[in-house]
Specification:
Layout (H helix, E strand, L loop, with lengths): L3 H30 L3 E10 L2 E9 L7 H18 L6 E6 L9 H7 L4 E10 L2 E12 L2 E5 L5 E5 L3 E6 L8
Parallel strand pairs: 2-3
Antiparallel strand pairs: 1-2, 4-5, 4-8, 5-6, 6-7
Helix pairs in contact: 1-2
Length: 172
């Protein structure tokens, strides 16, 4: 028999996940209506309530401050009406940045040729961290070129964290 504290903690976690999913649905609807992509949603406890952070991008060409502000205003209005977040919250809407997180096969395929850093939940062939160029993503496996002759194949299901690396053009 589990302790009441663990059960209560599990209940809180389930409620937090349900809240995050409701916020994600609202944000996805607003982003899609504007031809934008919802990259990620974060819900965190913060002093005085919750912090709701949305990362939004334009599939081609990046996103401007006016678009981010417009998404913020509309999502905030919908959340105020639908009220999925218990208590007070602060909403932040921003672009994912140059070192954007990678989620799912679509992202890995979209950024083929780009430099990325991956971490796995468990060691794969003795490693848990890789930095290399994304070669492809097929049948649930991301392939990275690590150097001239070396590559890594990392199953998507085992990736705990994937992120693009910032690259600067070489002068000269």
């Amino acid at each position: 028999m589990g302790s009441p504290t663990l059960f209560f903690g599990g209940h809180k976690l389930a409620r937090q996940e349900a809240t995050a999913e409701r916020v994600r649905c609202v944000a996805q609807r607003v982003a899609t209506d504007r031809g934008l992509e919802l990259v990620d949603v974060e819900l965190k406890r913060a002093p005085g309530g919750q912090l709701v952070r949305l990362y939004v991008d334009r599939p081609e060409g990046g996103i401007g401050l006016d678009e981010l502000q417009s998404v913020s205003v509309e999502v905030s209005a919908i959340l105020d009406v639908e009220d999925p977040i218990e208590g007070r919250y602060t909403l932040e809407v921003s672009s994912p940045g140059l070192d954007r997180p990678l989620h799912g096969e679509t992202d890995y395929r979209r950024f083929v040729g780009r430099l990325a850093k991956l971490s796995s939940y468990e060691p794969i062939e003795g490693r848990r961290h890789w930095t290399g160029r994304i070669v492809g993503c097929d049948e649930g496996v991301v392939t990275l070129a690590l150097g001239e002759q070396e590559s890594a194949r990392v199953p998507l299901a085992k990736i705990s964290h994937g992120r693009l690396e910032v690259e600067f053009p070489k002068n000269g």
